[in-house]
From TrEMBL:
InterPro entries, per the entry: DNA_methylase_A-5, DNA_methylase_N6_adenine_CS, N4_N6_ade-DNA_methylase, SAM-dependent_MTases_sf
DNA methylase adenine-specific domain span: 297-600
Keyword Protein biosynthesis applies: no
Protein name from the UniProt record: site-specific DNA-methyltransferase (adenine-specific)
One of the Pfam families matching this protein, by short name: N6_Mtase
Length: 1038
């Protein structure tokens, strides 16, 4: 083959035929050869070679792009000739055309979905093409992090992908139906979901023209049926019979409520996406959505998200949230693996809160695959499929709408294995009854697989719901609107009033000898409350916990980034793998995975767990109900854990405040409800007020002290006090003097220290004021009974120090997990005790900062106080905490890398390429040589000049009779490292990837190979690496 543009990308030799990946999307007769490039057995890019970009080819490209969009997994389509390449955005929705569409119109529309194009003669564009779209760039996710790809990233809008776009179309259609007089939300829900599933059946060849024409002559598709209300409901009635009720049962007077106009909205939605004045018609001759391509697991995702948007309050009240397929796959890869030809298929499985059935559908498909593994043939015998389903797949769900979708989803999974799929409508096959709902009188027969029940109620009389081999699922969580059974269960077990806890506990009763993997909210691990501690005591002492995944960082992921697992708003989540019975060979540690970043650093949409995110925690420590190890291990190292254990042993700021007569209290609360008791305070009314938003670190500006009425900011408070914005702005409204709570009146007097619950740019905000002022209840006020202003100044600098951020970030329950807010009792745990000598040392830098801030207020400037903050840090390190140099390094590394990464994510220095390696080398050589002091061996190091675009970095350690100077090798190893990088990835689930580090032993040399990010090459990392190397050497691996 002659040299062409595509060759420069080093990708074409690695591209394969789509059929090797079981991707049968492109008919060869129509589309020619379309190849796929994969990473970790997942398709990443589709590639198509063409002779030219003429009009016929452009129409072909538009058709291929539409297929790619419906497929959803792949983001890029590369189309190339010998001299030109065009890269199309598969996340952008396709456009429609027909025989009458002019060439310039298609050209313009294709340009709109084009991310990049380049001809062989354009050297500058070729260079950028290689930087962003080469094989190595794709594998390392350079497009998501490089400055060169900013404009490309802006055009990749994941909200336009097929699943997201369909959900939005359904939601807008539901809204349009409501506006056009269809007020019953249950009718809207059923009408849309029936249509969704019918189009799925049609595209999967599970319906036929014969079926449609039995209801409407000349009808060729469900679109034709939707032109006629009578025919539509006659079809629905037949499906209600064929699918055992399910979604097709009618609401009261439903048929009389639905008009032809309503059905036209449904028809338009599935043909073009939701169409209004803003959204023009996309497709004139064929529909936009192709359910023969859209994967079955996306139906649950689409349904859950649609229902959540349709009834946000219900979902919030019940604590239920859609489970992303990536987490389902992660859990089932652990508990129902199929990739190693596993063949045991009789595994009785329960989802105790099954929702629309995503866990059940995927579990059933895996059991079918295991059957096929055992019998070495494709399973398409309907009776055998039904037997596997009825014997092994069980769900419990409180919501009757969801359980009907779960039943239908399982019917579709049954159909998916059949060929032909049309047997259901002529009664050749009969779907089994699955739903058991005593309240549903429309069910002709009760099934024994999907139980409409309260899971936490007494289920002991239902034989089918006993002795499970496996329990998986995503139980509801939250602390509001608890069912009486939840409240009673938690009270009985002395657990916190938290929705998820009874599910986690009861699972061990439903599967006394089985295995369990459930999703829960992370605060269950970190909350310091006594009733949460009681639950942890039960979980870790009366059960065997194998591993935990902590995905709290994903709470901060941007809405449409690859890292955002949950489409709905949801708090931090974790997954626990456990069982009631102790195994024969129990481990002394619990495996704990806690990814620190949601950066989308691979073209494969998802999250990455690096080797540093994997910890093996001592089981004995985890069994302590008050252990802080879950939070520390999330962001710190074992060295941090040991250091914090030592520092928190004896002293605390709380004790020091008591000893020095320092009191504290919160600010006032406004009235917002007529039921509130009114408390009058003329003092608060007449005093200056400082808004929490205006409180600054160290001290706050006097110019921000305002009248009390400026505290009224919310609409509900303005309405209660009868305040008009114009009058408020003109200061023509009498000062309010009645409040819900007055707060601690003494805390308003000067001198005082104001401490915000919330953070400023992820920094603690303590402010010393020498002027009296009031404040609201989001602020704590500290004051001295002895008017000891110097002590208040010292507390101000201590609280503002980065070292306090370090302590609190690694130990308190919510900071970095649930919300960036710190409670007063958490501040008071800081391990500080202040002598008179230390007080004198810290007052001086504070006074200089205070004066600089006052000068800044006067001059409108901002002084550099960083050198004073470093001076304060050294006093804390050396005089208060009395830390060794190594302990100071541990704290500083956690601040510079972990905390900075949490705060700034993709912009953090922690993830930037290595540019200084000396500190790492010096530390690891010192650690190893100190240990080898009594042995006739010494360690020397070699490092390499590695390009900052290389995904890996490497250091070589050599063992010999003497220590030599560090060598800088000129050997070019960049290409080998790029190839090796791909081999270090391991896919554990859809959108979830593990990236291993590598210690490679070769004779007297050890090669340490890790990601080319600064956080992996710190001095603390060197201490950890030396420790693990010594363990490997002791085991004889070296």
């Amino acid at each position: 083959m002659d040299h062409s543009v595509i060759n420069d990308l080093d990708i074409i030799d690695f591209a394969k035929d789509c059929k090797l990946f079981d991707i049968n999307l492109f008919q060869k007769e129509k589309y020619g050869i379309v190849q796929v490039y994969e990473n970790e057995n997942q398709p990443v890019i589709f590639l198509k070679e063409v002779d030219s970009f003429d009009f016929i080819t452009l129409k072909l490209i538009a058709e291929i792009h539409k297929i790619c969009w419906n497929f959803q997994k792949v983001l890029f389509l590369y189309v190339y000739t010998k001299t030109e390449i065009r890269i199309y955005n598969c996340s952008e929705k396709p456009f429609g055309f027909n025989e009458e569409t002019r060439e310039n119109e298609i050209v313009n529309k294709l340009e709109n979905i084009e991310l990049y194009s380049c001809k062989q003669t354009d050297k500058e564009k070729l260079q950028l093409l290689n930087i962003i779209f080469s094989r190595i760039a794709i594998d390392t996710g350079f497009v998501w992090s490089s400055n060169e790809a900013v404009e490309i990233r802006k055009n990749i809008k994941l909200q336009n992908r097929v699943d997201k776009y369909l959900i939005q179309s359904l939601i807008k259609t539901a809204d349009a139906l409501d506006k056009r007089g269809l007020k019953n939300k249950f009718i809207i829900h059923k009408l849309i979901m029936r249509s969704l599933f019918l189009f799925y059946l049609e595209d999967r060849k599970a319906t036929s023209q014969e079926l449609y024409q039995s209801f409407l002559p000349n009808a060729n598709s469900f679109f034709d049926i939707l032109d006629n209300v009578e025919a539509t409901y006659n079809l629905f009635e037949k499906l209600a019979d064929d699918f055992n009720g399910s979604l097709f049962n009618f609401e009261d007077k439903e048929k009389d409520s639905v008009t032809k106009e309503h059905l036209k909205l449904i028809k338009n939605c599935f043909f073009d996406g939701y169409v209004d004045e803003v959204n023009p018609i996309l497709f004139r001759d064929e529909k936009l959505f192709d359910f023969s391509i859209i994967r079955i697991e996306l139906l649950s995702e689409i349904y859950e998200n649609f229902l959540s948007e349709l009834d946000k309050k219900e979902k919030k009240d019940t604590g239920t949230f859609y489970t992303p397929p990536s987490l389902v796959e992660l859990i089932l890869n652990e508990k129902l693996p199929v990739k190693n030809k596993e063949s045991e298929y009789n595994i009785k499985t329960l989802d105790p809160s099954c929702g629309s059935g995503i866990f059940l559908v995927q579990s059933f498909k895996r059991l079918v695959k295991r059957y096929e593994n055992k019998h070495n043939k494709k399973l398409n015998n309907f009776n055998v499929l039904v037997d596997i389903l009825k014997a092994n797949i069980f769900g419990i769900e409180f919501d009757p709408k969801s359980i009907k979708v779960a039943a239908f989803s399982l019917y579709l999974a049954l159909l998916d294995n059949l060929d032909p799929k049309t047997g259901w409508w002529n009664k050749i096959i009969q779907f089994p009854y699955l739903i058991n709902d005593p309240d549903d009188t429309s069910l002709k027969e009760s099934g024994n697989n999907l139980f409409k029940r309260d899971t936490i109620s007494d289920l002991s009389d239902i034989q089918e719901l006993q002795n499970f081999d496996l329990i998986v699922g995503n139980p509801p969580f939250g602390t509001k609107n608890l069912l009486p059974t939840i409240t009673a269960y938690c009270k009985k077990e002395n657990f916190a009033q938290e929705m998820v806890l009874p599910f986690l506990h009861k699972a061990t009763l439903l599967a006394p000898k089985g295995k369990i993997a459930l999703i829960f909210n992370t605060k269950v691990l970190t909350n310091t409350g006594g009733t949460y501690q009681n639950f942890r005591k039960w979980l870790f002492n009366e059960n065997y916990v194998e591993k935990i995944y902590n995905f709290s960082i994903l709470r901060k992921a941007p809405k449409f980034s690859g890292g955002q697992l949950f489409g709905s708003a949801v708090g931090p989540i974790s997954i626990v793998f456990y069982q009631n019975e102790k195994p024969e060979n129990p481990k002394d540690t619990i495996t704990y995975y806690a990814p620190k970043t949601y950066i989308k650093n691979d073209i494969l949409e998802g999250i990455v767990i690096d080797s540093s995110d994997e910890k093996h925690l001592p089981r004995t420590e985890c069994e302590k109900k008050d252990s802080k190890i879950w939070k520390i291990a999330m962001w710190g190292s074992y060295f941090d854990f040991e250091l914090l254990e030592k520092l928190f042993e004896s002293k605390s700021l709380r004790q020091d405040l008591i000893k020095n007569n320092i009191k504290n209290g919160v600010g006032f609360q406004l009235l917002t409800n007529k039921k509130d008791k009114k408390l009058k305070s003329q003092f608060i009314s007449d005093s200056k007020f400082l808004d929490a938003d205006c409180i600054e670190r160290y001290t706050s500006q006097n110019s921000n002290l305002k009248g009390i009425n400026t505290s009224i900011k919310t609409e509900i408070a303005k309405k209660f006090y009868g305040i008009d914005d114009k009058l408020l702005f003109a200061n023509e409204f009498e000062n309010i003097s009645y409040f819900r709570r007055l707060g601690d009146l003494d805390a308003y007097l000067a001198p005082h220290l104001l401490l915000k619950k919330g953070l400023i740019n992820n920094q603690i905000c303590a402010s010393y004021l020498d002027k009296a002022c009031t404040f609201r209840d989001g602020v704590y006020g500290f004051y001295s009974l002895d008017e000891n202003e110097d002590y208040l100044k010292v507390i101000t600098v201590l609280l503002n120090s980065k070292i306090s951020s370090y302590f609190l970030f690694l130990t308190i329950s919510s900071y970095g997990i649930e919300r960036e807010q710190i409670m007063k009792n958490e501040f008071l745990t800081l391990p500080y005790s202040i002598s008179e000598e230390i007080k004198l040392k810290l007052v001086d830098p504070f006074n200089r900062i205070f004066q600089a801030k006052k000068n800044d207020e006067k001059n409108g400037a901002e002084s550099d106080i960083s050198f004073l903050e470093r001076e304060i840090d050294q006093i804390i390190y050396n005089d208060i905490l009395k830390l060794t140099v190594d302990e100071q390094i541990i704290i500083q590394d956690t601040l510079d890398f972990s905390l900075d990464l949490f705060e700034r994510q993709a912009n953090s220095d922690a993830v930037k390429p290595v540019f200084k390696i000396g500190h790492f080398i010096n530390r690891i050589v010192k650690e190893l040589n100190d240990w080898l002091d009594d042995v006739d061996l010494k360690v020397s190091a070699t490092h390499y000049l590695i390009d900052n675009k290389c995904p890996l970095y490497m250091v070589k350690l050599s063992f010999g009779s003497e220590q030599k100077e560090t060598v800088i090798s000129k050997e070019n190893i960049g290409q080998e490292l790029k190839i090796l990088d791909k081999k270090l990835w391991n896919e554990e689930g859809k959108n979830l990837y593990f990236k291993k580090k590598l210690n490679y032993f070769d004779g007297d040399d050890v090669y340490i190979i890790k990601p080319n990010q600064r956080r992996f090459w710190s001095q603390t990392a060197a201490m950890e690496d030396s420790k693990s190397l010594l363990v490997e050497i002791a085991k004889g691996n070296g």
